[in-house]
Each structure stands twice: as C-alpha cells, then as structure tokens.
Amino acid sequence: MRNMLREIGTQRIQTPRLLLRPFEYWDLQTVYHTWTSDPEVTRYMRWKYHTSPAETLHFIRTWRRGYASPLYFHWAIVWKETNKPIGSINLTVVDENDDRGEIGYSLGRAYWGKHVMTEALEAVLKYGFERVGFNRIEAYHSVGNDGSGKVMRNAGMIFEGRARQKCKIHTGEYTDCDCYAILREDYLKRKAERESQRA
C-alpha cells in the first residue's frame, strides 16, 4: 500500500506564544539548564537527568542527525518572549502503513501550569493531521504523571486505557502507562465545533 504520509520534515510552527523549530547546537546551554538537568522534569522519563552539558550535547547531535529524514518530526519549544527553548516535542512515525504516530514531550519546570504544553501539543496535532497526513496520533504517560494526562485531554486526546508495565523508566522500574489517542475524524470534528463557536 502506498505511504500516505507527506515527507515534509520538521518545519517551523507559530502559535500565539511559541515558536516550534528544529534544535540548533547553540541551544545546548539553555536546554541543559532549563530541563535536561532537572530531576523533576525527568522523573518519569526513560532517561535520567543530565549531570553535564556533554550528555545534552549527545541528545542534540542525535536530534540534528534525525532532521535528515523527511519523516522525522522533533521541535524545540521556544518561548517567543525570550527567544529561548523551554522544552521539546516530537511526533514519531509508529507505522507508515497505518499512518499512525506517537507524541512525546518535555517542558522546563518554570513553565508548568501555564498551558504551554497544551498550546504546543495542539499545534503539533494540527501539523500531523493537516500537513503530514496522520490518521491516528497517540501518546502515553506514566501512571502518576497526572499533569501530562491533563495536557493530552486539554488538546482533545481521548483516554483509551492502561498499558501495564509498558515502559521502563530511568530507575529501571517498569511503569504502567495511560494511553490517549486522537483520530483525524476526532480532530476535524473538534476543529469544526471550535470554528462554529467563534462564528
């Protein structure tokens, strides 16, 4: 079956408060000090918080190499007010045949509770459905990370169930994860409802 996903790569996205763009090497110090070195940010991650910028540099090198693929989607979340990256969000192709993707994200603690991640997630969902052509986009969060689940619900994603011991986090523990997903038809229905409310 022909792949329906558009191979457009990681392009810039503007939202009212944010710029989503590819990571650059000069982001290193800001990325390290804003979130990759924070144990609270990485509490539920598969990777442990970084203890030196060299570890973060390895991440950025990996991300930069990924941009060579037209089906690689990974953005720095830049706070327009300061023009500094404050987090990251990615949309991974899980299955090209099924036009299915998965979202992952992290955000500096200073920006928690400000609806920043919801704003970024909504923008990436729009990009994924309208520009790339995904049919289904899903996301998982460790049980206990309720803030992440709230972000997913606020962006229109629907709770589908709990996957037992789906992930192994950096401590070596297996953790249960809640699954949220949104279909293209869900996204278009939500978009139409919002437009009718504004009319």
What is shown here, in short?
This protein is an alpha+beta fold. It has a single domain (13-198), classed as Gcn5-related N-acetyltransferase (GNAT) (Aminopeptidase).
Question: Can you walk me through this structure?
Answer:
The longest helix has 17 residues, at 116-132. Strand 4 (84-95) and strand 5 form a beta hairpin. This protein has an eight-stranded mixed beta sheet with strand order 1-2-3-4-5-6-8-7, sandwiched between helices. It has five helices and eight strands. With 199 residues, the chain is an alpha+beta fold. The mean pLDDT is 95. Helix 1 crosses helix 2. It has helices at residues 28-36, 53-66, 116-132, 146-154, 184-198; strands spanning 13-14, 18-21, 73-79, 84-95, 100-107, 136-142, 158-168, 174-183. The chain has a single domain, classed as Aminopeptidase (3-Layer(aba) Sandwich).
Fraction in beta strands: 25-35%
Overall helicity: 25-40%
CATH second-level architecture: 3-Layer(aba) Sandwich
> How many structural domains?
1
CATH superfamily: Gcn5-related N-acetyltransferase (GNAT)
**CATH class categorisation:** Alpha Beta
Major sheet characteristics? 8 strands, mixed
**What is the average per-residue confidence, as pLDDT, rounded to a whole number?**
95
SS-derived structural category = alpha+beta
Number of helices, counting only DSSP H or I runs of 4 residues or more:
5
Give the oligomer, counting copies of the same chain as homo and different chains as hetero: single chain
CATH-defined topology: Aminopeptidase
Low-confidence stretches: none
**Helices and strands, in N-to-C order?**
EEHHEEEHEHEEH
From the N-terminal CA to the C-terminal CA, the straight-line distance is 40 Å
